[in-house]
Amino acid sequence: xxxxxxxxxxxxxxxxxxxxxxxxxxxxxxxxxxxxxxxxxxxxxxxxxxxxxxxxxxxxxxxxxxxxxxxxxxxxxxxxxxxxxxxxxxxxxxxxxxxxxxxxxxxxxxxxxxxxxxxxxxxxxxxxxxxxxxxxxxxxxxxxxxxxxxxxxxxxxxxxxxxxxxxxxxxxxxxxxxxxxxxxxxxxxxxxxxxxxxxxxxxxxxxxxxxxxxxxxxxxxxxxxxxxxxxxxxxxxxxxxxxxxxxxxxxxxxxxxxxxxxxxxxxxxxxxxxxxxxxxxxxxxxxxxxxxxxxx
Length: 296
Prior knowledge:
Elements: H1 2-19, H2 42-50, E1 74-75, E2 79-82, E3 92-95, E4 109-115, H3 121-143, E5 146-152, E6 158-163, H4 165-172, H5 184-189, E7 197-203, E8 205-214, E9 220-229, H6 231-234, H7 237-240, E10 247-251, E11 261-264, E12 267-270, E13 281-283, H8 284-290
Antiparallel strand pairs: 1-2, 2-3, 4-9, 4-10, 5-6, 6-7, 8-9, 10-11, 11-12, 12-13
């Protein structure tokens, strides 16, 4: 019996060690510096200038006299959205190539411009740690909980576990369908052993996208651009909203927002062709009016 228990313990340790480690990229995926393209929207510049892919996402051409009534909403092959509350100057958006469901832009995607002193491995490691620490601090601040540990799960997601009364309530929560999220199996996979522990932030993957000497807002310096994939699956909008102005959040089309946008520094920026000559951003409050379920 003791031999069996020892073997089981070894398997658990090896499995946990595998989950807790992952390769970090030190060679940038894109070697071009950020260059602002005035023919594209701010949102499109953030995507094109930071990543080396955009999944067919395009700026929309907006008609100034377009219908913005609720009846104008359509979810056909071209997604349309009417902004009614202080929106985009009476515009109906034809949003082509919205990219929803296509990896890696199949969920909220984080883009962080992290200031660095040089391009050494030490500085890159510090950039990775900075991103994680900022997410942790924002989560702790929003929910009044304390970070405990992180784990790479078998499904290759990086999940951050916290402790506090909020987590106790979350563990006990029973949903309308009569089920609980925090089942024994769910907790076992994440090494959760306490009643006051829960998962409240994380992502699917993080990598070094590029080095750059300027940001999308034209700020000069030395930056490591970190791409945080599927962040929206694990880190909600309330936490995203607390991150600093060097963080950009790309939100593709989803069930709760039928128009893609980039969120930065308390504003949502839409993919609107500058030639349209209309305002391409709205405030956080306006965003919550347009997409009531986005901020939860």
